[in-house]
Amino acid sequence: MKLPILLLTLLAGLLGTLPLRGQPGLPALEISHLTGDFYVFTTYGSFKGQRISSNGLYVVTPAGAVMIDTPWDTTQFAPLLDSIRVRHGKEVVLCLATHSHADRTAGFDFLREKGAKTFSSEQTYQLSRANGYKLAEFRFRKDTTFTVGGRSFTAYYPGEGHTPDNIVVWFPEARLLYGGCLVKSTEATDLGNVTEANLAAWPATMRNLSRKFPRPRYVIPGHQSWASTESLRHTVKLLERHQGTAGGR
User: What average pLDDT does range 26-34 have in this prediction?
Assistant: First the structure.
């Protein structure tokens, strides 16, 4: 029994030191420990010619790893699953996407082939189908609490904002709010991709979110740094600034 453990240790060391190449011109996969069994993974894509980081989350449970959103960079699907297997000895058993865009759903087909159950809201499923994004195998029609390996988490729809279908995920054990692209990092200087945004509804959606999950210990935005929990307030400030600019035109 010692040989497999030794091999896993050696492989973990290799994965921790060797770069996992991404698409040409894009950085490789990054995995950052957040707290306990929670990890943030970051891959990269491009929007309007700019290189953009994209965050996802996974949590390790006794029954396997749960992933929130998929990598954006298609070359990082296998390296992420391999890293989880080597580091934790677990397979990804469930993945939930927070809206339909490719930076959230691109890996659905790959994950399904690997045996993971893929989930989205019904609204996300319909938008994905209409716009040519990857589809989840399973979908839900209302706010839903999942339990995997004794860990529970809730998918919550606070209202329209970044997209009509954006949901967030709450992990009560860690007081961790995964905001996805509805929530802007404190590093953000603008609202990013607003092609499907409801700018009029977004401020009320943020108020709903703050009332539902007050005082989170961790807030993970869809892009850029998650170091500050002030990202909820920062998103509101960006919305106010945008409305002020639009009103002045």
Answer: 91
